[in-house]
Amino acid sequence: MKKKHLLIIALIVSLLLGAHNFIGLKQREKTATKLFIFSLNEAQSCFGSDYSKLDENTKINYYIKASSNLYIALNILNSTSYANIENRNELSNAIRELHSCISEINTTNSRWRAVTEKRELISINERIS
């Protein structure tokens, strides 16, 4: 009889702990998703400027800001709700290639052309999601 009661109590405790862990996991996923979207928005804000009118230091700051935000987005993608979408691989590849284009040592014109192409891919993937 005592074993039965202990087993029932252990089952209830394990169910409560499981529910608590599940709720915590969903909350962390929501937080990661918000950070993912924020990082992509921050990177996108770097692409909206006319680079021909900016000085070299501002261009470098924009490149670093865009690169770091894309790096963050790429690294937390698996923790977000976007990890379970059908075209997740295309999304991660687009972010990875865009980050790679920005991070490479390249001429400004070819870098900007590559950045623009990858930015369009990300925008298409965001609209699909």
Report a brief summary of the structure.
With 129 residues, this protein is mainly alpha-helical.
Give the tags:
129 residues, mainly alpha, 4 helices, 0% strand
Walk me through what this model shows.
The protein is mainly α. The protein has one domain (29-128). 81% of the residues lie in helices and 0% in strands. α2 packs antiparallel against α3 and α3 (88-103) packs antiparallel against α4 (108-128). The termini are far apart.
Classify the secondary structure makeup into a structural class. mainly alpha
Q: Provide the helix percentage.
A: over 70%
The pLDDT mean sits at: 83
- This entry's quaternary arrangement is single chain
Total strands: 0
The helix/strand series, from N terminus to C terminus, equals HHHH
Model regions low in confidence, pLDDT < 50 over at least 5 residues: none
Mind summarizing the main beta sheet? none
Q: Name the overall outline.
A: elongated
User: Radius of gyration, Cα only, in angstroms?
Assistant: 22 Å
Distance between the termini: 54 Å
Number of helices: 4
